[in-house]
Amino acid sequence: MIAKLLSRAPLYAALLLALAWTVFPLYWIVVTSFKSEWEVLKWPPSPLPEDPTIVHYARLIGADRFYQYIFNSFSVSLGAALVSILLGAPAAYGLVRAGVPPKFSSVFLVWILTVRMLPPIVIAVPLFELLRSMGLLDTRFGLVIAYQVYTLPYAIWILHGFLSAMPKEVEEAAYVDGATRLQTFTKIVAPMMAPGIIAALLLSVLFAWNEFLYALIFINSPSKYTVTVIVANYIQEFEIDWGRLAGSGVLSTLPILVLSVYIQRYMIRGLAFGGIKA
Amino acid sequence: MPRESRDGIFFVLPSLIVLFVLTVYPLAYTLYLSFHEYGRKTSFQAVFVGLENFAEALGDDLFRTAFINTLVFVAGATSLELLVGLGLALLLSSNVRAKRYLVGIILVPMMLPTVVISSFWRIMYHTELGVINAILGAIGLGPVNWLGNPDTAMLSLILVDVWQYSPFSFIVFYAAINSIPVHLIESAKVDGASSYQIFRHIILPSIKKYILIVAMLRIIDTFRIFDKVFALTGGGPGNSTETLSFVIYKEAFRYYNFGYSSAEAVIMLLAVLLIIAAYIRAIVR
Amino acid sequence: MERRGVSRALLIAAVIVVIVAIALAAFFMAREEAKPEKITVLARSGTYAEGLKIAAAQFEAETGIRVEVQELGYKELYDKLSTEALQKTGAFDVVMLDDPWLAGFASQGFLEDIGRMLEERGLTVDPDFIDSAIEVSKYKGTLYALPYAGNVQLFVYRTDLYSKYGFSKPTTWNDVLEAAKKIYEEEGIYGYVIRGKKGNPVVTNFLPIFWAHGAKIVDENGNVMVDSPQAIAALKLFIELKKYSPPGTESFDSAEVKASIFEGRVAASIIWPAWVPDINDPSKSKAAGNVEVIPPPGAAPMIGAWLLAIPVSSKNKDTALDFILFVLSKDMQKKIALEAGVPPTRESLYTDPDVVAKYSWYPTQLEALKNSQMRPRVPEWSQIEDILANYIHQALIGAMSPEEALSKAKQEIEAVVKG
Q: What was the ipTM of the complex prediction?
């Protein structure tokens, strides 16, 4: 027994190291966010706040109105995800089931896969001009549109994977009963695609929540900033006012952490269907 | 299939239009701009200059440095992430307790916003007050001027990326290893194969495909590095962490040389496509 | 039959796309448009924005007009102003500018002619404003802004350490270097601290030394002079000073410099006054009582005023001007100086007993302001500053020799100026 434990000691040591490597930065940020302005200047840094304070959170939520950036990120993420699903679900259905010429289907799929390789900065200037001509610069909706470059192909790809793996007998039964294609889609297919839709939705939200470059370029008013842009500003601005910086980091990752349990499940499936099974 | 027809187009069309407007048109426009001088200097009128922008970009020290830095980042981050990810996957595939929770925890970094993660590391990297130098100091090393020294700044960026995205390669490899039929490994053990032999002859061949795909995805992603540079180093110290995306961003949105920045963008895009094409050719062979 | 089905389907699809797009756009835009009367101010965060918020609260109480102060860090502020100058969305009614940015934005036609607006109201600029601060608010003779913060670079040194090692108040940069070396070697305290972060910080930190050596960025005939022997000597001295500065000084920004001074770990530094309102407060500063604030040795100090201006795209220009004049009134400036620590731009406040009681060095600062020197007023300044920042930084970290760095800087600046 002991011998067995001993032989596994290196294994557990390695696990512990891996865990520490992953968790330490997160731990450190939470700790820092509770330290006073002067305690962060202490050397060596204390492993736990000596005199824990919530002033940074109070300030972020009060004077800095951090909730407004969370709201901005939330509305942009959700907007981008919904638009992607609204456009992407029918597209995936069309590609898999509704008799699109196979040649068209494969060209389209390769195209949206290629979009993934496109560095965002390469089309930033044209998108900027495009949004400007539509009067959508400095609006959250403009950002929702810009994010379709990446979220829409992703949604189509994931949903395409889900649909391809689904038996088509059910649909055929519906046709036999005289349903139209649109009815079949809304009544039968869409509900069956629900898990795929949730996966695409969550992953699009995740993308939009984390996106930085387009939010930086296309949004001008600080009151419309998303969390990533405001945190980038804080990094420069708070410099070593680390309590506040760390607090903003904690606040902007909490929503994602809450979702993470669900996201993870779908991420693994999404990877299996979307990213990997290319 | 009943009622065989082509009305599937009806379902695809909205996406087709949106994606066309958002990708094909911008690419064409970038290409168009790259042959023009367009920006503050020309009062935002496009003036045709032929290949001048490209010639200038290829002779531009900053652009070349950025190109090389980007390649260093791509190579360093991708290879380390594959190694760490594989190590983690093997570790977690052995018989350990609470596996589900461990996997969940390990995946967290890849879900957080890059900018926010950068702020974490910026706090930890600080030369004088940072916890990393405190830990190094406790074991008699350092202090290392992580972000302030041109020799370590790029390494610092790579480490942040490794922290953030090793979980990605981990989860793919982990899923792949777990789909290897148990009896294969069991019978190898019965035949007296060592752990290394099992890894070399059973695990590695069956996840090779995934390693190659993950490598490609990471190359694509690391090539566009922007957020970390913006948040951690601003391209410095000196030019040691200037990257393609960052240089193009500055040229376009700080100096308003849209024509020149477009030429740089076209070169960047060609580089990605070339690298990926070469990569695919190499692994197909 | 089938043909018609397809074309009808196409039509339906197109209609759906358009409806969805319009509905969403309308929803978002309605959210963003429907607002009561208010003006939006884009400001430099920290002390400067605090000051404006104090004024905003009172303005709101007196007029009922809401003032929203949005704040950003230095570089972000510049970037957003640049984007707004291009987009002209009208998102901002009052904007805060660092004085060297004025030429760029004014020449782009981004800023309203405040001189003309004042004239229309039958007003003139109050002579109480410090001349040099009004001067930096002008571009080619036209007044495009009004000065809000009378910043000028100053110098602090530890009187206790200087006198302990037999140094008196430094008058040249060689004095500073000698004292730094001695104190570093004998006392084990860093003799100096450089604000060396790449970008605006390292440039503003270096220019006083550069000017003190008689170097110039551009001469009277528009020739770029950054690689003159004087300039090289200045850069060499700057690099010497780094030897006696804390590790990591090449990435320090104001907060680290401030912390080093307040923690009593350095003997001297260049500072901006707004950093140090509490430098002699023993509860915050370990160096309290032993710090003297003086003009930087050897040359005219650098002005770095923060200005308030009105973008041409603003839809509430009159209210915007009302607010600016409200902020810059004598009473309000005094209040802002006392409560937020923003240095005023009115001469009378620098000798006001209440203000001087709190900030003992204000008379010194007034002298410095009156004799101050400004950075070149060319539209391309930001780009020039980036180039200088890059090469000064390269030299500072030892990646290039001072000669090489400055000659490359010269080439690039020439390309920008002539481009």
A: 0.91
Q: Pick B237's closest partner by Cβ from C16, C108, C198.
A: C198
Domain co-membership, A162 together with A117: yes
| Distance (Å, whole) CA A75 – CA A208 | 10
pLDDT, residue A113, reads 84
Q: Closest residue of C to B3, CA-based? A: C2
**Residue B170 sits at the chain A interface (C-beta within 8 Å):** no
Pair A174, A191 in one domain? yes
Q: What DSSP assignment string belongs to A53-72?
A: --HHHHHHHTTT-HHHHHHH
Q: Please check whether residue C226 lies inside any domain of the structure.
A: yes
Q: What is the mean pLDDT of residues C375-387?
A: 89
Domain final residue, candidates C352, C370, C388: C370
Contact A220, A137 (CB under 8 A): yes
Of residues B14, B143, B238, nearest to C399 (C-beta): B238
Amino acid at C265: R
Q: Residue A189: which CATH number? A: 1.10.3720.10
Q: How many domains does chain C divide into?
A: 2
Neighbours of chain A (3+ CB pairs under 8 A): B, C
Would you state the pLDDT for residue C268?
95
Confidence at residue C13, expressed as pLDDT on a 0 to 100 scale = 61
User: Which domain range does residue C186 map to?
Assistant: 154-302+380-418
The Cα A248–Cα A59 span in angstroms is 10
Interchain contact C68–A (C-beta under 8 A): yes
Note the pLDDT tens digit of each residue in B198-244: 888 888 998 998 899 899 999 999 999 999 999 998 887 878 999 99
Residue C7 lies in a domain: no
Nearest by CB to residue B15, choosing from A15, A91, A232, is A91
The answer on pLDDT for C56 being more than 80 is: yes
**Count: domains in chain A:** 2
Q: Rounded to an integer, what distance in angstroms lies between the CA atom of residue A234 and that of residue A227?
A: 10
Together in a domain, C247 and C163: yes
* Residues A207 and A101 placed together within one structural domain of the fold: yes
Are C109 and C257 in a shared domain? no
Q: Do A239 and C256 touch (CB under 8 A)?
A: yes
Q: Minimal Cα distance from B94: which residue of A?
A: A11
Q: What is the pLDDT of residues C265-285, one digit of tens each?
A: 899 999 988 777 778 788 888
Q: What is the mean pLDDT of residues C81-108?
A: 90
Highest average pLDDT, of A69-83, A152-166, A189-203, C70-84, comes from A69-83
The string of pLDDT tens digits covering residues C318-352 is: 999 999 999 999 999 999 999 998 999 999 999 99
Question: Is C227 in CB contact (< 8 Å) with chain A?
Answer: no
The CATH code of the domain at B61-284 is: 1.10.3720.10
Using the Cβ of B111 and the Cβ atoms of chain A, whether some distance falls under 8 Å is answered with yes
Q: Which residue has the tokens 């530094």?
A: C269
The Cα–Cα gap between C37 and C34 comes to 10
Whether the bond between B181 and the residue before it is cis, its omega within 30 degrees of 0, is no
C-beta of residue C146 within 8 angstroms of C-beta of residue C137: yes
C-alpha distances in angstroms, A174 versus A90, A185, A197, B192?
Answer: 18, 10, 21, 56
Sign of the CA dihedral with B272 first, then B273, B274, and B280 last: positive
User: Which residues of chain B have a CB within 8 Å of the CB of A29?
Assistant: 120, 123
The per-residue pLDDT for B1 is 44
C3 pLDDT higher than 50? no
User: Which residues of chain B fall short of a pLDDT of 50?
Assistant: 1-4
Of C6, C82, C250, Cβ closest to residue B237 = C250
Give the residue-averaged pLDDT of A117-132: 93
Same domain, C226 and C160: yes
CA dihedral A160, A165, A170, A173 (to 10 degrees): 80
